[in-house]
C-alpha cells in the first residue's frame, strides 16, 4: 500500500518557501516541528496539515492555500498572517496559540477540543467556534464574524467575546469576567434548552441575547445596549444586576424571570423612554428590598408578581393579561400624577403586609385581602387611583386616606363596578389647614355594598367620621375634646397653645395645629415654641447685660486719668495730676456672651463690638469731668438657630471723678439707643414662615463707685464697691411675615447691679518703657426681679405672656490688663474682662489710646 504521507528530514529542510502539490502529497502532510518556512499548497489537497510533534512549536511563517490545519499534540504557536482557507482543528490534548499578528482562517470555523489561546494575539478573529475545549482570551477579545456555532467548553480570561455576526450558542460554563458583545443582527444564546450553559460576565447587546435553559439560573452581570433579550426554555431566571438595556424583552410561556433576590439590586430596562418593553407570556417577578421604577410597557398573557419588601413603581400603560399579585412591599401604578395614564391588568390581589397605590388605573377586579392595604397617590402626594372593575375589601384589610385641609383635596378611589366594603379606613394625617366645614369624598363606585368596619385617624385633635350613599363614601374630620394645652410640657408652650385655641377654627394657625398628628407631640410642642416669640423677651436681657460695656469703658477712662499712664484695670493714684491739659481718648471693645436656657427657654449666644471716644478736663477743684460718645453693633442667636437679633447701638456718657486722699469717687450717666432688627423662623404643620421686625429700644443707666487705695511700694491695692442702676425699654413691635406674626407690647425693665471687689497694680519697666500690670476680681449681684418676659399676641387676638433668657443673679468678674507709656503725652493699654455666672459667661477685650494736648 502506498504511504499517503510526505516525509521530511529536519537536516535537509531550509527556511525557504516550500511548495506542495497534490502529486507529491496524496492525503496528509506531516510537518516536523523544526520547519520554519512558508508552506504554500498550490493545488487542493485532500488531507489536512497536521502538527503532531508533541512539543512546543513556534511557527512564524505564513500558511496559505486551500488546506485544513490540525494540531493533534503539543503546543503550536502561530505568528504568521496565515491565509489558508480550510478549517482549524485543535485536538483534545493539544494547544493552538496565536501570538502578535498570528491568526487562523477567518472565514472558517475553529473546532476547539483542546485549548485555543488568543491571550497574546493582537486581534483574534474566527468565523465560528465549536467543540468542548478551553478558549483563553486573557485580557483580549475574540471576534466571531459570521457563522452559527455551538460551543460546550469554557471561555476564560478577563477580556471577552464579540459576536459580530451569526449566532454563538454556549452550552458550557464560561468563566470569562470581561464582557460578551453582540453586534446588530448577531446573537448570543446561553444554553440549548437543557441544564447546561451559563455566563457571568456583562453583556453589551446590540443584537439578541437569549437565555435557554430548562432549569434557569442566577445572572449577576449587567446587560446594556439596544438589543433584544429572550428568556425561554421553561426555566426560572433570577437577575440581580442593575441592567439598563433599552431593547425589548421576551419571556416565553412556562418561563419565569425574577428581578432581584431580596436585596437592593436587580432590574431590567433603562430609565424613562429608554426602558424598552417586556412581552411577558410567562411570569415576571420583582423581588427587591429597595425601590425601583419601570417606565416601559409590559404586554403578553403572563402574570406579574411583586414579592420583595421594596417599592415597585410601574409608569407604563401595561396590557399583560395574566393578572397581578402584590405579596409584599408596595406597588405604585403611576408614581406621580405625571403618570396618571399608567395601568396594570387584573385581577389584582394585595396580600397581608403589602400595599397598592398610585395615580393610574387597575384594568380588572381588585381584591384587598386580610392584612393588605390600599391607598391612592403616594406617600407625599394626594391622588386618584381608578379601578375598571369591582373592588373587594376583605375583613382585616385597610384603606389609607390622606386629606389636605388647606385645599379640600383628598385621596380618591374611583371604581366603575361594585365596591364591597369591609376592613378599616385609616386616615393618615397630611399637613394642611383644618377647615371644620370641609368634607372629603374618598371613594366613588357604580354601587356600594356594605360599610367599613372601623375608621381611625392619626390626628391629635381631630377624629374621623364616615358617611355613605349608594355611590360615595365621604370622610369628615371633627374637632375632638382634647385641648391644645393638654400635650404641652413647658409654661411657654402652654401659654402659646392656649392663645392659639382662642383664635378658633377660622384661624390658619388654629387649623395648622389642629392637623398635627397624635404621634407628633414633640412636633406640636416645637411648633408652639416657634410661635412663642421668646426671642423678644430675651432681647432685653442681652442688651441690659451689654450695658456694662459703656460703664467699663468710662470707668476705665477715669481710673487711667488718676494714674496718668496706667491702663487696663487701674487704681487710684497718690494724687491728682498737676497738668491742666484736655486729654482725648479712644477705646475699642468687643465681647462674646452666652446665657444658658432650660426646658422652657432656649439659650442665647451673642457678641458685641464697638468704639468709644471721649474728652475730659481736670478742674482746679479736683473734679474730673468728661463726656463720651460711641457706636457699636450687638447680635445674638437662639441656640437652636431659629431666631436672631441684631442691634446697631449709639452710646452717650457723662462722667465725674473726685479723689479725697486715698478715697476716690467715680460716677457717670449713660444712654444707649438701639436700632433693633429681629428674624425668627416659624414652622407649624403646613405653615412655614419667617417673621421679621424692626423697632427702637433704649438703655439708660446711672452708676457710682467708691475705691480706697492702699500702697505697697511698687504695688497697690484698692478695695471697691460699685452700684449701677440700668433701665431698658422698647417700643411696641409688629412683626411682618404671615399668619404667625406677633404684636409685642412695649417693654420696660429695671435692674440694679451691686459689685464688691479688689483691684491690684504693679509698676515695672519693660526695656526702659514704664509699664503697669493690673488685675481685679469681684462679685456682682443683680437685685430685684430678673425674670425676662414679653406680652405677645397674634394678629386678631390670642394674647399670651412668654418668658425669655434671664440675666444671671450672681457672677464673678475677672479683669487683667497691661498699660504702656508710649511717648510724651500718649499711653496705650489693652485689657481682658470676664464674667462667669451660673449658666452664663461673657468674655471681653478692650484697647485704649490716650493723648494729651
From TrEMBL:
Keywords: Signal. Residues 577-853 form the Autotransporter domain. The lineage of its organism: Bacteria, Pseudomonadati, Pseudomonadota, Alphaproteobacteria, Rhodobacterales. GO terms for cellular component: outer membrane. Residues 1-42 form the signal peptide. The keyword Transcription regulation does not apply. It comes from Cereibacter changlensis JA139. This is Autotransporter outer membrane beta-barrel domain-containing protein.
